[in-house]
């Protein structure tokens, strides 16, 4: 089984874990990891991603390799799958792996006295790329300067240690998967759609791989992700839209979502519940409600 993924340290660590788990669950299976450089990996400068046409930049080359038969399966962070365009026709969802932590954290320099964002002096620079994070944090910490920081998780940590920033905001799961222990604060902000979920994709119509992929599937995560991605599709969210969405499953599926202005001064929130079997409809309903209340204008302005 040739499993394609990005060559970043995080993607490779994720792929090694998933490959091991897959081999354990499928007798006789051997998984070979195939690193595939995407345009997103080649262009790590600020603004480059937008020029490349959004988040699809991290998946396009891998989609192509899958469709062309160079790999049999692909591993992606659900968060990196574009929300405004459907997945290509030749690509099918094989498995949603069980969700880990969906939360965001602020990471501080080792040895620094600051251990929370509230500890930082006024004017301190905090590196965070996602507009969703900036919008929510600027309102709570108006004394701090939130500035874009791009690059892989390891690159961002290096920029923190070099002194470019007093703190950086990252996905908690990134550090967990890399096995990196750092001084950090958990942030109580609404997560990104798909945060902390890995998806395994296969070629549409490839029964053999689909059957093996099923062994890795976690049905509750699949429902939660379906609701979140339906929300994103209705809102036509891409990499640079300040949208948050997080579904929980406690008997029923509950989806909470928010759309922000770039500075976070304006916020629209919505939340609804539905049976897990109606995940897509739930996502569409929450998205529809936000659009009715003016989310389209907020997203357009952002
Ligand atoms: N923006 C890139 C990205 N895409 C997915 C993750 C984290 C892993 C995940 O959520 O599965 C990250 C790093 C981050 O946001 O700090």
TrEMBL record:
GO terms for cellular component: cytoplasm. It is an enzyme of class 2 (transferase). Coiled coil: none annotated. It holds the Pfam family Porphobil_deamC. Its EC number is 2.5.1.61. Residues 226-291 form the Porphobilinogen deaminase C-terminal domain. It catalyses: 4 porphobilinogen + H2O = hydroxymethylbilane + 4 NH4(+). Binds 1 dipyrromethane group covalently. The modification S-(dipyrrolylmethanemethyl)cysteine is found at residue 239. GO terms for molecular function: hydroxymethylbilane synthase activity. GO terms for biological process: protoporphyrinogen IX biosynthetic process. Keywords: Porphyrin biosynthesis, Transferase. Its cofactor is dipyrromethane. The porphobilinogen subunits are added to the dipyrromethane group. HAMAP family: Porphobil_deam. Tetrapolymerization of the monopyrrole PBG into the hydroxymethylbilane pre-uroporphyrinogen in several discrete steps. NCBIfam families: hemC (TIGR00212). Monomer. PANTHER family: PORPHOBILINOGEN DEAMINASE. This is Porphobilinogen deaminase. It comes from Actinomadura logoneensis. The gene is hemC.
């Amino acid at each position: 089984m040739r499993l394609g993924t990005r060559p970043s340290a995080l993607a490779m660590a994720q792929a090694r874990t998933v490959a091991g788990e897959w081999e354990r669950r499928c007798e006789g299976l051997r998984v070979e990891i195939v690193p595939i450089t995407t345009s997103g990996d080649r262009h790590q400068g600020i603004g480059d991603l937008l020029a490349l046409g959004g988040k699809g930049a991290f998946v396009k080359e891998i989609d192509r390799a899958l469709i062309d038969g160079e790999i049999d399966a692909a591993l992606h962070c659900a968060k990196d799958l574009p929300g405004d365009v459907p997945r290509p026709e030749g690509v099918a969802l094989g498995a949603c792996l069980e969700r880990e932590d969906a939360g965001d954290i602020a990471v501080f320099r080792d040895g620094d006295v600051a251990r929370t964002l509230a500890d930082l002096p006024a004017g301190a620079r905090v590196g965070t790329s996602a507009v969703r994070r900036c919008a929510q944090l600027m309102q709570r910490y108006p004394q701090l300067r939130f500035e874009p920081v791009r690059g892989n998780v390891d690159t961002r940590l290096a920029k923190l240690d070099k002194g470019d920033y007093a703190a950086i905001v990252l996905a908690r799961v990134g550090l967990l998967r890399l096995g990196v222990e750092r001084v950090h604060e958990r942030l109580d902000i609404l997560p990104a759609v798909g945060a902390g979920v890995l998806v395994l994709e296969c070629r549409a119509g490839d029964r053999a791989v689909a059957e093996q992929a099923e062994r890795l599937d976690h049905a509750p995560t699949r429902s939660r992700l379906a609701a979140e991605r339906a929300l994103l599709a209705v809102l036509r969210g891409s990499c640079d839209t300040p949208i948050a969405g997080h579904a929980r499953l406690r008997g029923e599926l509950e989806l909470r979502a928010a759309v922000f202005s770039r500075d976070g001064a304006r916020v629209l929130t919505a939340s609804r519940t539905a049976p897990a079997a109606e995940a897509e409809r739930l996502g569409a309903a929450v998205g529809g409600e936000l659009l009715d209340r003016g989310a389209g204008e907020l997203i357009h302005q952002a």
